[in-house]
Amino acid sequence: MLTIRGLCRTILRPFRMHIQAPLLRRRQERYVKELQKKQQVSVVFFAMSVSMWKYQKLYERLSKHPSFCTYIVLAPTPQFSKEIQRREVEELRQFFDLQNIPYIDYDVYSGKCFDLRKKINPDLLFYPQPYDTILKRPYSFYRFKDKLLCYYPYAFWMASGETWYNSVFQNFAWRLYYPTEEHKEEAAKWTCNKGCNVVITGHPTTDKYLFETPIDVWKPQTIRKKRIVWAPHHTISRETTPPGTSHFLTMSSMMEEIAERYESQLQIAFKPHPRLYYALCEHPDWGKEKTDAYYRRWQERPNTQLEVGDYKDLFMTSDGIIHDGGSFIVEYHYTQKPALYVTDNLDGRLQELMRYAQDALRAHYLAKNNEEILHFVEQVILMEQDTMQPQRKSFFDKFLLPPNGSSVVDNTINDLLYTLRKM
Questions:
Q1: Dist. CA 340–CA 364, nearest whole Å
Q2: Is residue 63 packed enough to be buried (19+ CB in 10 Å), middle (13-18) or exposed (0-12)?
Q3: pTM score of the predicted model
Q4: CA torsion sign, 405 to 407 to 413 to 416?
Q5: pLDDT tens column, 355-394
Q6: Alpha carbon of 208 to those of 55, 89, 128, 293: distances in Å?
């Protein structure tokens, strides 16, 4: 229930941000001048989960540059249960340990945070999400407003509106490294500071797709089969989801049938949204036992597999995707492979999207029922009757290639080095 005090804060927040934005900008400019004289700038990267860790390439480059001293801080979101936080931290530890990358650890059970102010006092801080309460209080951006706050979007933002662009963090940040000119236009339209802190670099995911050789992560078969990624979203309640989404419950049995019917020709990777498992466990017609059994069947069949981690290699070595989610509308086009989007309300879905995301969706094949999904599998994937390759290539060239003929990390580092005079 919203209190009177909370209501006042909500009403006054836009006014306060309008007043504070220019004052904060001047303070940041003074701090930048101080850092230009500093021999080494300290940089903190918050790592909330492996799936949202978008700073790997930037960290690697800055950690080797003599002008920067870099730190990674494990910081799972307190909005999740202790069990989910524990799992996220363990996955982060394994991820960084495998690469011999040092990090500042986090004890889920004690909940005690590292004292960044006292022990590091960082100059730049890169956050994983732009929300007020996504990290514990000692790591909150409110504690570091006098420093330089930076951000890469963890996913492809595709919706327009103030909700996506005018958070307190987005007004307080020193640098928002956004993917496209349209994102900058949206920030200028909706943000109190008129998007003055936005720099266009391309999306950080781009470098992984363009410059890393993919690894074949598909289950070995006696012959090469066509490979489809099925990536259902977690929104399974029709009453509370956006228009044209939420199709897992109607597709779950059919996708198993397709895997069995075409076992000799087809492989399917079940790539559910991380939150789908918990949504199904709480669903009255599913529950934990049924959900575990369903996930296990995908893991155990000879021509199927369960994928819950990083998916870049999975995408790049696939032959197509079937999905009804959000950011994959754009992201799968890095592969330039056929993509099927499942929606029973295309007009409603398009109305939610920015122009570039509308173009991405229109470069998909579309299905509103199981019969049309089966048609995509049989005609486009198995028989290779792909007529939409030119649309996908056009979208890739126009929106997914980074500006300046450079990589995303090069665009970011060049901005940092030029502004901080560390060239």
A1: 5
A2: middle
A3: 0.85
A4: positive
A5: 999 999 999 999 999 999 999 999 999 999 999 999 999 9
A6: 11, 23, 17, 33
